[in-house]
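=== Structure Prediction Worksheet ===
Name of assembly: unnamed complex
Input type: mixed (protein and possibly other molecules)
Chain count: two
Listed entries:
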Amino acid sequence: MPFTHATKGDSLADVVERILDKGLVINADIVILLCDVELLSIKIRAALASFETAAKWGLAFPSDMRVAHPVPEQKV
Amino acid sequence: MMTDKGLYIYCLAQGNQEEPLELRGLGGQPVMALLHRGLIAVVEECEAKSIQSEDQKVLADGLLIHQSVVDIAWERYETVLPFSFGMVIRPMDGKTAGENLKGWMERESEELRGKLMRLKSKAEYGVQVIWDPTIVLPKIRHNDKEIQDLEKEIQSKPKGVAYLLERKLAEIIKKRLEEAANVYFKDFYQRIRNCVEEIHVEKVRRENPPKQMIMNLSCLQEKDEVVLLGRELEKIGKIQGFDVRFTGPWPPYSFA
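=== Predicted Assembly ===
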């Protein structure tokens, strides 16, 4: 039954498509952009067009998405 | 909180406790939950300025960390409104970034609560249908008299004329494939539409030739009710020449 469970996004393209193109946006002057997101988007898409380049940059996506680092034994 | 700091924002949720998520975010700082009247903003303190990094690897890692934090927050709060990548709330007009963010949450409160209500317990699923036209084409050719006649004619003509006719044949085949892709799209769309609550049609992405993506959808459905969708996709995936990619559950980026 291969399709009764979806696979967690295993490709960077899936993540890029969602996180760079979508999601909630605040259109107000209280917001600045962390970086030139448009340029980042273009560059990452260019990289994705070439799997070889993507691999060179180490963009292969881990199957376990939990790359955020736990804060050890302390409450902040 | 220092007044000159910014706040990187990951997502919003509903809740009443300001417990930290015990995670470090993309700037290496602890991820915090900022509470304001029943709404929680999941944020991380950062410099209130853009970074000029040319290092794509750093930024690509940032994307993954953003997604990861939203995922973990989603598990904790059940329903989240994920933010797009890269937004930093800044201090302004003598107010801290936190005060500015709370002010925005206050102003948008009704709409944000409405969205959270609509997305409650729901997840986003990605559905992509990819076909191999070289496998589908023989079926089309088999049922198309115009193509068959033209192929016979090509065999009976001298080289020069045959060349021109071959070009004509290639045009017809291209058109028939486009028509077929369109018919398949409509059929699959309807079948998938019946299994989900909302659906967004996305741009198709490039595949390794000769394969082509003919459909790229974001679907919204209750987290625990995707069995029907899964079964329908399984049927589509069994059609000769077609592959289906089914990803998720994702936080509802496309529906936020």
